[in-house]
Design goal:
Elements (H helix, E strand, L loop, with lengths): L8 H29 L12 H40 L15 H6 L7 H11 L1
Amino acid sequence: MEGRARYNDVELAEFKQLIEEKLKLATREYDQLMDSLMNRGSNDVVDTSPTYKTLEEGSAVQSKEEMTNMAARQLKFIQGLQSALVRIDNKTYGICRVTGKLIPKERLRAVPHATTSIEGKMQEKKNKI
């Protein structure tokens, strides 16, 4: 890995397959969250007693906020994966945007949308202080 400017086409194809699988799963999870947020096919408290209804509605609002946050995080993850696919097409995938060195394969397998190596992240933190 040391001294190479980029990953070769075979390695990029391997990462592309991994990212496409993760993207498919992430999109499915996002769609499920959005379905839940839109109350498609859900049970409601319309026919319950007023006291219980008030408590239940408060809980529903909190749940909806949590699901909205989860959906936002999932969408950000999807966008990161889509950006990674663009970098693969441009043959710039796996190059740390801070150091310019190759990000280790192990990191890319764990976090396929990563744009910085651990070393690059440490440099960023150091510069922020």
